[in-house]
């Protein structure tokens, strides 16, 4: 089958799936996004496309799976955290989420959350009790914690870019109080945020390998993604450009492939070679992605107004 035929078939299948679900079809796939037919067979079956779950949101972000495979994701504009269950149902898990953005579950089942209402990192327990983990840096408001990753041993990394928010009422005049946009380390059992990346324009997506050896961080402003070695004390070394593409949120699969977001989902193998481009049937950029489901083989994709799922052959590592 020719590449152009594959693109047409993928678009037709996506539209048919939406009609079968009795959901108004969203715009067709951006024609500039093409799958790479020589490299996708190990990731997903030929003809598989993202399927719309719902388009009722204000601005979705921060999807994370719990131990069972349910996905929790944020709708920052409406100040909510939603859950997409194993049964395929959507429910509001938390109202008044402190304008939650990026999230990550720790080993105890707490949802570690970048909360932008007052520029904090918080922990939300399974019974929805909120504990503030990091409230400021040296007495100054953080820019706006955006994405967060927790290692197996309990250390935490988070990005702190500056995006002015209309709901900020506590900061006074607009602008950063800190001297830059950085990535921070918070060691297990502490509340001190230690800067470990200070040379990015606008750091955003953060994710690490399950063996605790490497951290991937996207420079959203610099339009590049970098790979770092995680040292025993949590500091970073051996900065290496991984992809000539920035990202909002990102994730990894069990083959070591890295999933970057923007115009669709772009997949790179562990060596930094682009191996797949997943078009998403919306005119909006993809904001984040994770693996969901009982077997962690469902790719869960967030965009500002909509969320999608896609059946995969690989599995996620969260």
TrEMBL record:
Pfam families: SGL
Parts forming coiled coils: none
SMP-30/Gluconolactonase/LRE-like region domain mapped to chain residues: 59-303
Keywords, ordered alphabetically: Hydrolase, Signal
Gene3D superfamilies documented for this protein: TolB, C-terminal domain
Spans traversing the lipid bilayer: none
Residues spanning the signal sequence: 1-22
Name recorded for this polypeptide: SMP-30/gluconolactonase/LRE family protein
Organism, scientific name: Mucilaginibacter calamicampi
High-level lineage: Bacteria, Pseudomonadati, Bacteroidota, Sphingobacteriia, Sphingobacteriales
């Amino acid at each position: 089958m020719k590449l152009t035929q594959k693109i047409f078939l993928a678009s037709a299948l996506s539209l048919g799936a939406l009609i079968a679900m009795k959901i108004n079809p969203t715009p067709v796939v951006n024609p500039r996004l093409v799958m790479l037919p020589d490299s996708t067979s190990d990731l997903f079956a030929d003809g598989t496309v993202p399927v719309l779950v719902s388009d009722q949101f204000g601005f979705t972000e921060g999807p994370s799976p719990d131990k069972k495979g349910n996905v929790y994701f944020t709708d920052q504009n409406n100040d909510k955290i939603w859950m997409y269950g194993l049964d395929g149902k959507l429910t509001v898990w938390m109202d008044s989420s402190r304008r939650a953005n990026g999230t990550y579950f720790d080993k105890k089942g707490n949802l570690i959350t970048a909360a932008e209402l007052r520029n904090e990192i918080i922990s939300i327990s399974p019974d929805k009790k909120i504990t503030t983990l990091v409230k400021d840096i040296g007495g100054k408001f953080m820019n706006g914690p955006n994405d967060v990753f927790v290692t197996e041993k309990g250390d935490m990394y988070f990005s702190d870019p500056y995006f002015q928010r209309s709901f900020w009422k506590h900061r006074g005049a607009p602008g950063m109080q800190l001297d830059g946009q950085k990535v921070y380390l918070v060691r297990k059992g502490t509340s001190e945020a230690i800067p470990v990346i200070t040379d990015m324009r606008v750091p955003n997506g953060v994710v690490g390998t399950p063996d605790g050896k490497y951290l991937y961080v996207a420079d959203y402003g610099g339009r590049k993604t970098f790979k770092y070695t995680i040292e025993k004390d949590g500091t970073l070394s051996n900065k290496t450009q991984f992809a000539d593409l920035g990202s909002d949120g990102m994730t990894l699969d069990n083959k070591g492939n890295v999933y970057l977001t923007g115009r669709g989902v772009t997949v790179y193998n562990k060596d930094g070679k682009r191996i797949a481009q997943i078009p998403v049937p919306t005119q909006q950029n993809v904001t984040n992605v994770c693996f969901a489901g009982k077997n962690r083989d469902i790719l869960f994709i967030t965009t500002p107004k909509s969320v999608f799922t896609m059946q995969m052959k690989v599995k996620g590592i969260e």
